[in-house]
Amino acid sequence: MAEKKFSVAIDIGHSKARVGAMSARGVGEFYFNRDIAQKLLIKLKNKFKHSFIINPKGGKISLSRRAKIAKEKKADILISIHHDSVQEEYLSFWKYQEKKHYYSDIYSGYSLFVTTNKVTKDKNFLLASHIGEMLRKNNFLYSRHHSEKIKGENRKIINKTAGIYEFNDLIILKKSLLPTVLVECGIIVNRKDEMNLSEEHYQNKLVNAIYQGIENYALKLKID
Ligand SMILES: [Zn+2]
What we know:
Blueprint: H1 2-5, E1 8-12, H2 29-47, E2 52-53, H3 63-72, E3 77-84, E4 92-96, E5 99-103, E6 111-114, H4 121-137, E7 157-159, E8 164-166, H5 171-175, E9 180-187, H6 191-198, H7 200-223
Parallel strand pairs: 1-2, 1-3, 3-9, 6-8
Antiparallel strand pairs: 4-5, 6-9, 7-8
Helix pairs in contact: 2-7, 4-7
Bound molecules: zinc ion.
């Protein structure tokens, strides 16, 4: 059965050495990404047992190498797990445990990024649509801040219900040879989002929604 062979490559965004964004309470994005990636893998393995994490140790590894590993290990799709920040002009300081940190409570929610200019474009969109649909059904809302007409954003929303943005210059998406979606799980500079995203129950709910989206995509392809 094709379904049983279906395999997902999960990319933990960033690395231990370069953690990505910094949360409102001073935790590196990488650690949020790793939590979600590990939970997602466990969930996926029940049904799609060949699924794997591209960079389980969180070492330094280039984005093109990540894309290559996914292809070499014969994954069907690539899911890159990230947590979001906002543009600098929205950041302010606050004190948490005697330390100053950046935060911004203006924006909240997940975002999905895909390319629209590659051979995989239809599948990218289909996969993202399924993930976004399940996130929405589970009461997750997406953030519109990436579509704001300011420097560094100004991205086109290509599915206003599912929260899918076009991002053709994002390197992991560009390099990937598979249908790929980059998931920004939430905004870790937002103090409320960060609290939620640190919580086991919320993480499980998020992972279940992403998982269901992937499963629906796999089923849909099988039917097609
Ligand atoms: Zn990131």
